[in-house]
TrEMBL record, chain A:
Keywords carried by this UniProt record: Electron transport, Heme, Iron, Membrane, Metal-binding, Mitochondrion, Mitochondrion inner membrane, Respiratory chain, Transmembrane, Transmembrane helix, Transport
Organism, scientific name: Aplysia californica (California sea hare)
Stored Gene3D superfamilies: Cytochrome c-like domain, Cytochrome c1, transmembrane anchor, C-terminal
Transmembrane segments: 38-58, 267-285
PROSITE patterns the UniProt entry points to: CYTC
Domain called Cytochrome c: residue spans: 87-239
Stated name of the protein: Cytochrome c1, heme protein, mitochondrial
Pfam families in the record: Cytochrom_C1
Metal-binding keyword on record: yes
Top-level taxon in the UniProt lineage: Eukaryota
Subcellular location: Mitochondrion inner membrane
DNA damage listed as a keyword: no
UniProtKB/TrEMBL annotation, chain B:
Pfam families assigned: Cytochrom_B_C, Cytochrome_B
Biological-process GO terms, alphabetical: mitochondrial electron transport, ubiquinol to cytochrome c
Protein known as: Cytochrome b
Top-level taxon in the UniProt lineage: Eukaryota
């Protein structure tokens, strides 16, 4: 970055203006033609050597690496200016609701968050009303249950963590609101995990209730394979293959963790356009103000003693 | 006085873009205070609700996600420019020509590091909690008083509610201390005037600060805001840790605890020394060594511009710094551990070479 800034402003790295370097000093500095080459050579050797050492040391496999890293998938929202695939987000919500919600909470999401992203306001109200939410106390001091409202958070499948553990062989299903951001690999990891179940390799013993998944740290995961071909039927008629289900729910979870994703990129694009214009104008003004100083010529006129 | 400092201040004609760092840091400090102020309006320093309050900022507060993204990434950029600023001072031996300015600057660096650490604890994610636990525990290395000091800092028997409360208070107030110190930094700077690439203060040519450097600084500010926009809008989580999206849990230790990238070189130095006290001393000295440069650097030394070995040593030090930063992020296993030790020695040795070279060069080559 610094080198780029230096080049674009036509100033070599950390170099004094040649016009101000006195001749005697230049003889012993690295600013001569050869001296500069030597300086760059030494610098390049130091940086290159460091990089080679770092890369070489990063090659061996270590105990901490005994986990399969997910590959990078070409998500459509990966582009710098690309929005989320909202059809996929909508289908992903269907997967979450019909498959994941049985065990996993999304406690930071409200039904109002679904409006104009996954469904209309009326549909979201109807969706919320399907859930029974504990409220109260009423005038008699009793807690009561009522149909959900837009402002309600998604209901938790369990009353508390202990109940969740008791129902899942001691494993606590994590909340999914920020699961994409809270895992190395993000949505790549989620997709790989959901499609990465297999029989344990020879020599790997699993405890009762555990399943093998090479993408899960340690390999033994409490969650059984949840996604199979046609396990649900999409409302838009998309064939519900395992990979389609995994892709859609990963996209939905990406949106859940970053609901501002699309707006953020849009604002970023606008900000960059404005800032580029301002940089151009300001840089021009800076050059304009400095032009007199930059183009002046200094000459030494020896005194005449005649 | 303001006009003298900002408009008619005689400034060296020859200073390059490396002299833009100070003004950029000043603007960034103001920006951090402002975004922090807005965040504090929605933040709750309560162990149970803190994590939720940050999520509330991200999801419900109007443009809260933007303020948080800019504030969090602004801290990273603050250290980018801080290191560039210190690097420029080191390269051009500002510690010789401007010793008092340098001393105040190192203090600002220390206070900034403390402020950034305190801020990192506030979201109360897993890495916040465990980072606070690891770093505050370093104080236990103090002979005799260590355990008492740690509990005094915690305000209890572990990192908890009292710790969070006081960290929030300190994180709010310390930037103003940095602002005050920056004022002192400027006063001392203007006493003699800025250094320049030639390395002496007998400036042959000076120009008024305005309009030349006001326009030049404005370009720098806009470049800063562009960098902030790129990070805040397009890659807001690239410099963070996924573990910090998980609510702090004292019962579950993350597999790999590591600080933010700007502390990694010091973290690698800390881990490279087997003794706890030795590690803590080395950690502090990795920055505090900058205090000794004005004392060790000889006044009659040849400026670095005319001392090629000094320039090479500086860049070698930069390479050591980068490798140490990388090592700080690596797991605690071989060969990273073995590599960190010699690099720590070389890091400190580089400073010794830096302060010795200009004098030796003068004796050996020039005169």
């Amino acid at each position: 970055m610094a080198a780029f800034a230096g080049r674009t402003t036509k100033q070599a790295l950390l170099r004094a203006k040649p016009a101000f370097v006195n001749q005697k000093a230049t003889l012993v500095s690295l600013r001569g033609k050869n001296g500069k080459k030597v300086a760059w050579l030494l610098g390049s050797l130091a940086v290159g050597g460091g990089t080679v050492v770092a890369t070489a040391l990063a090659q061996p496999a270590f105990a901490s690496d005994l986990v399969l890293h997910p590959p990078k998938f070409p998500w459509t929202h990966n582009g710098h200016l690309a929005a989320l695939d909202h059809a996929s987000v909508r289908r992903g919500y269907e997967v979450y609701k019909q498959v994941c919600a049985a065990c996993h909470s999304m406690k930071y999401l409200c039904y109002r968050n679904l409006v104009n992203v996954i469904m209309t306001e009326d549909e979201a109200k109807a969706e919320a009303e399907e859930a029974l939410v504990e409220d109260g106390p009423n005038d008699a001091g009793e807690m009561f249950e009522r149909p959900g409202k837009l402002s309600d958070h998604f209901p938790d499948p369990y009353k508390n963590d202990e109940q969740a553990r008791a129902a899942n062989n001691g494993a606590l299903p994590p909340d999914l609101s920020y699961i994409v951001l809270a895992r190395h690999g993000g949505e790549d990891y989620i997709f790989s995990l959901l499609t990465g179940y297999s029989d344990p390799p020879a020599g790997v013993k699993l405890m009762e209730g555990q399943h093998f998944n090479a993408y899960f740290p340690g390999g033994a995961i409490g969650m059984a394979q949840a996604l199979y071909n046609e396990i649900i039927e999409y409302s838009d008629g998309t064939p519900a293959t395992q990979s389609q289900l995994a892709k859609d729910v990963a996209t939905f979870l990406k949106w859940a963790g970053e609901p501002e994703h699309d707006v953020r990129k849009l604002y970023g694009f606008r900000a960059l356009i404005i800032l580029s214009f301002l940089i151009g104008v300001t840089y021009y003004m800076k050059r304009h103000k400095w032009s007199v100083l930059k183009s002046r010529k200094l000459a030494f006129k020896p005194p005449s003693y005649k | 006085m303001l006009a003298e400092s900002l408009l008619s201040l005689p400034s060296p004609l020859s200073i390059s873009i490396w002299w833009n760092g100070g003004s950029i840091l000043g603007v960034l400090l103001g920006f951090q205070i402002l975004t922090g102020l807005f965040l504090s309006m929605h933040y709750t320093a309560d162990m149970v609700n803190t994590f939720s309050s940050v999520i509330h900022i991200m999801r419900d507060a109007p443009m809260g996600w933007l303020f948080r993204n800019l504030h969090a990434n602004g801290a990273s950029l603050f250290f980018v420019f801080m290191y560039l600023h210190v690097g420029r001072g080191l390269y051009y031996q500002s510690y010789i020509s401007q010793p008092r300015t340098w001393m105040i600057g190192v203090t600002i660096l220390f206070v900034s590091m403390g402020t950034a650490f305190l801020g990192y604890v506030l979201p109360w994610g897993q890495m916040s909690f465990w980072g606070a636990t690891v770093i505050t525990n370093l104080l236990s290395a103090i002979p005799y008083l260590g355990p008492s000091v740690v509990e005094w800092v915690w305000g209890g028997f572990c990192v908890g509610q009292s710790t969070l409360n006081r960290f929030f208070s300190l994180h709010f107030i310390l930037p103003f201390l940095i602002g005050g110190l920056s004022g002192l930094h400027l006063i001392f700077l203007h006493e003699k005037g800025s250094t320049n690439p030639l390395g002496d203060l007998n400036h042959v040519s000076k120009i008024p600060f305005h309009p030349y450097f006001t326009w030049k600084d404005m370009v720098g500010f806009l470049v800063l805001f562009t960098m902030l926009a790129i990070l805040g809008f397009f890659y807001p989580t690239i410099l963070g840790d996924p573990d910090n999206f998980i609510h702090a849990n004292p019962m579950v230790t993350p597999v790999h605890i590591q600080p933010e990238w700007y502390f990694l070189f010091a973290y690698a130095i800390l881990r490279s020394i087997p003794s706890k006290l030795g590690g803590v001393i080395a950690l502090v000295m990795s920055i505090a060594i900058l205090y000794f440069l004005p004392i060790a650097g000889a006044k009659g030394a040849v400026p670095s511009s005319f001392t090629p070995p000094y320039q090479v040593t500086f860049w070698v030090l930069v390479v050591f710094f980068i490798i140490l930063t990388w090592l700080g992020a690596c797991p605690i296993e071989e060969p990273y551990l073995s590599l960190a030790g010699p690099l720590t020695v070389l890091y400190f040795l580089s400073f010794l070479v830096l302060v010795s070279l200009p004098v030796l060069w003068k004796k050996l080559v020039l005169f």
